[in-house]
């Protein structure tokens, strides 16, 4: 434990009580001047001042000793601050009480931040555990297809699923980091949409889904890589919950909103307000045992980081309509 040496401690104590010492000197001077003006013996003032000075010296010695003990207690508390601040000396006045309240408030916020970080790490571990189990399914299917010499198209579909799970895990990890991976610039929307559609072309063909992509001559302030990831998640859900020979339509509507709609099984009304919650699969996800409840969560988080919005409109048996608002109303990461 490192403490201040006695000379420095003494001067620190004097500085702390400098006003009181100066006030005592001024009072002694006033008494001396008044006694001199009235031709009273100045020795009386000097004698009284000397007595007060002696008593003050004794009091100062006790005060200095208390000051030293208080300093040592605070140094010990500083060395163990990570364990808490409950060992602080009792406040001597209202100001010290206020300062200790501020310290306790800061410690409470710090502990909440640690708890939040611990929870995020726990969530990360939980997600990766879930992802590993999810990835085992297409891997096992690939093994069966190879063993039975099934057609290459089915094997490629399983490989694509695994690739998508890997991408989701990577984006999940990156979303938890700082904002440096986001590079905002003005981008043409059409190439981003076409790239996402090409990535899922095999699944459209495999399920014989009819896809309509309308012309969209628009430019948006975004990060093309992250926006593409969000669109891919929406397309993945649309393909997953749309039956064979279904229809998916991608269009642009005012004010600068990308719309992806399908004629699939739709979403139950009680599930619709919670579909963006992490880990929430809803009735459809539980019934089909295909959903991890991560895709839409990552999609919403990504769009929020880009200062975009998303909302879903759906009803059972009538398909789902995802509306992505691409207008940037604020500068992200401020």
From TrEMBL:
GO terms of biological process kind: cellular response to phosphate starvation
Compartmental location: Cell membrane
InterPro entries, A to Z: BphY/WalK/GraS-like (IPR050351), HATPase_C_sf (IPR036890), HATPase_dom (IPR003594), His_kinase_dom (IPR005467), Sig_transdc_His_kin-like_C (IPR004358)
Domain of life of the organism encoding this protein: Bacteria
Catalytic activity: ATP + protein L-histidine = ADP + protein N-phospho-L-histidine
SUPFAM superfamilies: ATPase domain of HSP90 chaperone/DNA topoisomerase II/histidine kinase
Keyword ATP-binding: no
Coiled-coil ranges from the UniProt annotation: none
Keyword field: Cell membrane, Kinase, Membrane, Transferase, Transmembrane, Transmembrane helix, Two-component regulatory system
TM annotation in the entry: 20-38, 44-64
Annotated GO MF terms: phosphoprotein phosphatase activity; phosphorelay sensor kinase activity
UniProt name for this protein: histidine kinase
Lineage: Bacteria, Bacillati, Bacillota, Clostridia, Candidatus Alectryocaccomicrobium
């Amino acid at each position: 434990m490192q403490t201040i040496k006695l000379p420095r401690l003494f001067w620190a104590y004097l500085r702390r009580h400098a006003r009181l010492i100066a006030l005592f000197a001024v009072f002694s001077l006033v008494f001396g001047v008044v006694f001199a003006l009235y031709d009273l013996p100045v020795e009386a003032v000097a004698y009284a001042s000397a007595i007060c000075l002696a008593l003050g010296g004794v009091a100062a010695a006790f005060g200095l000793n208390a000051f030293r003990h208080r300093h040592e207690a605070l140094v010990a508390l500083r060395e163990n601050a990570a364990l808490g601040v409950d060992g602080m000396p009792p406040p001597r006045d209202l100001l010290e009480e206020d300062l200790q309240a501020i310290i306790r408030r800061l410690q409470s916020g710090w502990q909440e931040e640690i708890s939040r970080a611990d929870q995020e790490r726990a969530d990360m571990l939980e997600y990766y555990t879930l992802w590993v189990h999810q990835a085992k399914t297409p891997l096992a299917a690939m093994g069966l297809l190879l063993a039975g010499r099934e057609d290459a198209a089915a094997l490629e579909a399983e490989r694509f699923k695994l690739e998508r799970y890997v991408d989701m895990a990577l984006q999940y990890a990156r979303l938890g980091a700082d904002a440096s991976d986001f590079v905002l610039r003005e981008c043409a929307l059409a190439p981003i949409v076409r790239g996402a559609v090409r990535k899922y072309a095999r699944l459209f063909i495999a399920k014989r889904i009819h896809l309509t992509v309308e012309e969209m001559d628009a430019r948006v302030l975004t990060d093309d890589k992250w926006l593409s990831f969000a669109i891919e998640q929406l397309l993945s859900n649309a393909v997953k919950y749309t039956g064979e020979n279904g229809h998916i339509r991608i269009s642009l509507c005012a004010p600068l909103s990308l719309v992806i709609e399908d004629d699939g099984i739709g979403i139950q009304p009680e599930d619709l307000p919670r579909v963006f919650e992490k880990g929430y699969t809803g009735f459809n996800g539980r019934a089909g045992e295909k959903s991890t409840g991560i895709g839409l969560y990552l999609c919403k988080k990504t769009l929020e980081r880009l200062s975009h919005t998303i909302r879903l409109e759906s009803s059972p048996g009538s398909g789902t309509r995802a509306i992505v608002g691409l207008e940037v109303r604020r500068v992200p990461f401020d």
